[in-house]
Sequence to fold (250 residues):
Amino acid sequence: MQCFRSNVPGVSASLLHSARAKPVNSVRSMGGGMWKAHQPFVTNGDSGVPSLHGDLPKPAFRDDHRKDNWKNQTNPAERHATNNLSTYMMVGAGGGAALYMAKYTLYGLALMLGPGRDKYAAAAIEVDLATIPEGKNAVFTWRGKPLFIRHRTAEEIASAQSTDVASLRDPQADTERCVNEKYLICLGVCTHLGCVPIAHAGDYKGYYCPCHGSHYDTCARIMKGPAPLNLEVPKHDFLTDTLVVIGKED
Fold:
């Protein structure tokens, strides 16, 4: 590359050429003293401009050295980091499948070692009757069926006890069906086709099955309609005046 022409008056091209070629070992400071340079000034490549970083090697914009020594520049984990994605995905999917299978394995083991369905079906329940307000009908689930517990008012008790038992389709006295006259306990399953009757409805304000028009009184006895029998009264025992156990076997 040819030396550029200086536009500064009095500076010739030969002077610039000599400045390029000769290293400078010291620089005069503005105070008049001399600075010792650690390394002589050298020109930066072929630009002809002096550089203060003469001790640095000229960069080589090639990848040969990096490619030859790449194993020493990185560790194995960094070199194979981009190749571990598929491994991580396989480990994650396998772990999720293993947890899913373990869940159902433990669930099946618990069912196998636990009590059978017949034990659950024969289970008894205790009900606190004090939680049922007077005149209300509470619905519970017992052995997979709706269970009605009705806290009867004095008028409902008097109406049920004054009924002529001989005139009933399924003759039962009120005292036979209600151990404690305040509470009626029966299954909420219509004896016609198994529908669930509605409480406080019908001609007798007991229970009413809207499917085929069966009417029951306040003691759950069939009074009118196609139902052949009264609503079933399950076996129950009063532990106290307000605590009853239903379905307890002898």
Notes: The CA atoms of residues 239 and 245 lie 7 Å apart. Residues 85-113 form the longest helix (29 residues). The radius of gyration is 51 Å.
